[in-house]
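Q: Is it fine to ask for two folds in a single conversation?
A: Yes, each is treated on its own. Send the first.
Q: Here.
A: Result:
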Amino acid sequence: MSSCRILIVEDNPHLRTLLNWQLIQAGYCSQVAGTLAEARDLIEQVQPELVVLDLQLPDGDGIDFCQWLRTVAQAYILILSFRGSEAERVRGLKAGADDYLAKPFGMQEFLARIEALTRRVRAQTPSSLLQFGVLQIDPVQRRVVLREQTIDLTPQEFSLLYVLARQPGIPLSREELLRQAWPDGIDNPRTVDTHILTLRKKIESEPRSPRYIQTVRSVGYQFQIEELG
């Protein structure tokens, strides 16, 4: 039996219920979502280790969601889709999926794919923690600790900090930060500035002279590591 946390994102209620039942019977901790909006909420609450993702959702494109998910969560992704051509499979894998299963499929094959991915979850090294001196960023628990004190961040603030911190020393434009750290449909670069401001107030000793998140003139922002301590 496996306690692996799985989130099923599938708009077909009958298939969603069937997959959920099969996973629970197999011993998994399974949750379901019928829309991308529901999935985003559950990702924060459940912190799944594996996401089963339908590509055709009523409120957005699964490929875009897959790309976004890859930036904010340490979860394996199994895509389910009626689009079974080689080109579509390649597109899904390039978007960040770990496996791709074309509909219709047999339940035994589905469970075998799940088992293969959960073996990778169990074998995964537990050290996904980002450590920069007195600053710790835990992408699994989505928690930030600064000088042994937990910092209360919103989900969006955490996503922004994580995207910056996993690419230390690399300047990222506002447009790139929007693409990596925000859900689809957010396209105002000034949104980044607003969140940078609130994030600095929470993690910087001197928000007007930041040590962690620095402004790169004419580019955007970068996470600074040389002088952290």
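Q: Second one now.
A: Result:
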Amino acid sequence: MVRARASRTNEEGIELSRILLLVAVLSLLTLAAFGQDDGQEYRILKVGGQETMSGYLTASLDIAPDDRTIGLSATQGFPFRTFPIDDEANVQELDIGNWYAGSRVRFSPSGKYILLQQLFYLDFAPNKDRPIKYEVVDVASGRSVLRLDDAYAAAITPDEEALLVLGKDGVRVVDISSGKSDPIKLARTGNAIAISTDGRFIAVAHRPTREEAATLTAIRNDKKALKTAEKLGQVVIIYDRSTLARVAMLDELFDKVFRLEYSPDGTDLWIHAKAHSRKGGNPNPNQSYVDVADARTHVMKRTSFPSLALFEPDFRASTDGTLFAIGSQQGRFMEVHLYDRSTGSMKDRFVLSYRLFEKMFSKAEFPSDGRLSFAFLPDGKRLLMTFGNRLIEWTYAP
């Protein structure tokens, strides 16, 4: 009797062990499944039904002000393409010349023009200023109406009549239709320029003078910091557009500013900067950031959005203005980080990882050339991003 009870106990123990082993195996399989697909909703788009690997590696994208058209630039000498949202097979092409590493694309306020900015595969002199190429293309005719080869930065005015150009001699105004340039009105060079959404102000990033650095709250009583600021730091000054008289200077010392941009709703000025490669105390040489200033009061806000992207990251606000997205990178894979715009807290992220490779349609697809550009779609639910010769449509708010 005792032996029978012991035998049953042993059998029950063996059966329990088998059940526990089965549960463990199923748990591992579940984890593996979630590791391959984290449940995010997305799809891979073939623009124009492209089936070959040659060409059309995407570099930058933008959405036209009509909220119906996608503009897509490519590397090498391939054409600029446009297509309606949700109809990527219906492609129109513009021959805009040869941009070896591609060009950043931005539509003008009404969509009459596109502004193309030269991009680089690698920047071997990230700490130095260098002129780059800009081109203004008339969308209706597909014709290039203005080309610059010696600008540090440029921006189309809200009335679309002129291009503000920042060069080695300062700021000049170039008429888009005629190509004629006004005399230099602001004889001070810089790294980046932006025009406020209402057209009233111009923001320019400069290397500070000792007097300007001495007015910054954080360093004005630190002689060593003041000296370093003159060599490695930059300040952002706001000018009146009509007179180019100084209006304000942001009370912040920045690293080298690569891009200034006013938010579409006119409330923020975004400052993208990256530390000098020789600056100490930076744990990651790829780290950059976007700081935020109030576009109306010219006072710095507390929000800041970091990035570890190898290239100058793209950044955008959602259509409703509540979210801020910025490109980044973790190890081998590029990522889009989604933040609450007002608090700076991360809400979500999309990783361009192996899971996308597994869903490729054929071997003709080229997954990535190391550059990530994206834009929020106007439905407030989806975000479109570049992925080699494909696009990824991520439904971030299903």
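Q: Anything structural to flag on that second result?
A: Two points. The chain has four helices and 27 strands. Confidence is low (pLDDT under 50) at residues 1-14, 19-36.
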